[in-house]
Amino acid sequence: xxxxxxxxxILCFALAGCSxxxxxxxxxxxxxxxxxxxxFRQVTGIPCPSCGTTHAVLSIMKGHFLQAMxxxxxxxxxxxxxxxxxxxxxxxxxxxxxxxxxxxxMAEAILRKSWVAWPALxxxxxxxxxxxxxxx
Amino acid sequence: MEAQKVDLFLMMNAKFFETHQIPFxxxxxxxxxxxxxxxxxxxxxxxxxxxxxxxxxxxxxGIDRFLLGDTGLGVAKLLTCGGLGIWTIIDWFMIMGRTRExxxxxxxxxxx
Lengths: 136, 112
Hints:
Chain A has helices at residues 3-29, 39-44, 53-62, 65-71, 75-95, 99-112, 114-135. By secondary structure, chain A is mainly α.
């Protein structure tokens, strides 16, 4: 993937993510149900590994970190990425550098290593299992 | 490389690439050194049909993207419930093209 394509994609993701969080924040404020967009949950009735992330991000925004942890711990990396990546890309674009692009390629290479990928998968499965048990 | 070998390779592997790439691949293979043929045989191209099956079953978790080596996009897909379900559906149509693209990138490493 080229630098330009990656930056555009991440900025689009960030914009979509922020819009999604704002929409959910508004819906919860007026006591409406948040939309259930998870295909996996709708088909199987079981939550997917990232179900609850939106609520976790909203809880983090309000400073309720323990509640966010119980909703989905994946909310923390997602919130961090949503805050850091657009700013990093904006700085890169202004300074005409490619530090984020190099970071992305490095992160991809690290994630492909088996000593990182398998423990990460294990943690993800533990987190998923916890959510399934909690709901069922 | 001999034209017969090139045609045999293309006959067996044409499904892994886009149709419009075939003339270019043939041209480059004909100009390629004979000694690289054995490495080319072991390149291990990914089957677009398998990618589509994986995308239909595990696309929601980004497994299709992990399979193609797009780890970053796989993580993004995994963390966002398959891009709120929209990206999952888009990828059902895009993944075969992306697989062919990845195969072509892999082939280019041999052609260089």
